[in-house]
Specification:
mainly alpha; 2 domains
Length: 177
Amino acid sequence: LTGAVNGRAAAPPEAPRGGPPGGPGPAGLIPPPAGPRNPNNTLVDELEASFEACFASLVSQDYVNGTDQEEIRTGVDQCIQKFLDVARQTECFFLQKRLQLSVQKPEQVIKEDVSELRNELQRKEALIQKHLGKLRHWQQVLEDISVQHKKPAEMPQGPLAYLEQASANIPAPMKQT
């Protein structure tokens, strides 16, 4: 896995003999490559090349010079399919490494799970605190409103009381001399 961190993933190990391809267990995790494969190329190299081929097919001068739309679509579909196939192989490689790690060092997997759970708890605790802050703010707003409504003695009574209260807050116009 350290090679994968440096941007290189080693080619997946050959499946042990004796297990049917595609069957259960480690022997069936990685399907055999569809075409001839250069042993010096890694899955990451193939993934990068197929990704670049996807873009190259979209900006190719052949397509700009009046190629049939169906032909363009077929070429792009083939490039994307190859990219997806190599991406699946790469995913299988890392899943296989993860499986090997869980078998060889189960305590490491448990440590990672505990760490993920702690991070999730911290995130949720921060979210709870954020919502509690909002809740306190709105409780204060509601309390302020209820205090204003509890002072009826200071407020004028009658059908025009609201207008009198609202107009009391409006400054008087300045007299021009």
